[in-house]
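During the no-cost extension, the postdoctoral fellow (Dr. R.K.) reprocessed legacy sequence entries with the updated structure-token encoder. One reprocessed record is reproduced below for audit purposes.
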Amino acid sequence: HDDTVFVNSGTYSQATITINKRLKLIGDSTNKPILKNPNGNIINLTGTPFSEFTARNFRFEGNARSNDAFVGATGYYFDCEFYDFARGILTSSGIYAYNCVFRNCTRGVQGGSYEINQSIVDHCDIGLFGSSVNVDSSIITNNNQGVQNETSTARYKNSIIAFNTIGINNGTSTTSVPSNNNIFWQNTTNAAGVPLADNNLYTDPMFCNLTDIGFDVRAGSPAIGASEFGTNIGKVSVACPSIINWYVSTTGSDSIGNGSSANKYASIQKAINAAGNNSDTVLVASGTYTENIN
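Re-encoded structure tokens follow.
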């Protein structure tokens, strides 16, 4: 039977943790524990089969892309966040990630055959790299390459793939890519290597905030009800109106503000970057703003 280690909320900065046994590592679901290692990888998994390790409810923070979060990391990952790593998860094969976030990484996941479900991969050099990468109901945005799949088949469905230089790079694989019920939007190249299959949409998914992409979209988003099962592509939900007013004040904050009237941004540029393509309005309070606006 698997033993379980429960971790309270807080920040844990410590040397590399080694796990070489069947284990469940569970963080506080109300306030995720933060795990860091200033001098190396956070967790090394050694000799742990795919079905014998689970991590749930953690935020892992890297050192400016100089270290990895998990190495040898076969297993299940639920509700975990990976920020600023060389690689969030490095494995030969055998991982399943659900409701996870990989952001600002050199590679979000690097492995063999694995599955990503209802997760966000954002601002990475290569978001997902592997020999057989299966993506379902996820959001892949702002990467140099969203997915790079090598040597074998893959599957992409019910996902939003947007604002990448290359959305999907099928590498050396010559097999047609099963890619149904996705939204592709403003990628320089939607797919490299092979043509995409049918049943995809090529339209603005209408995220609420383009500087903090999540599972929130605007009323009227084409993702609503458009998956293969009639649910929402990318597992998004409507959380804002189709047209948004953004607020800026010299007393606001670009780091913790969200652009609302109650929690304004500090710079005009931040509000412009957050705005969508649907006739949003930026409302600027009186004061002096020193910035170069694009």
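DSSP finds one helix and 29 strands in the chain. The radius of gyration is 20 Å. The remaining legacy entries will be reprocessed before the final report is submitted.
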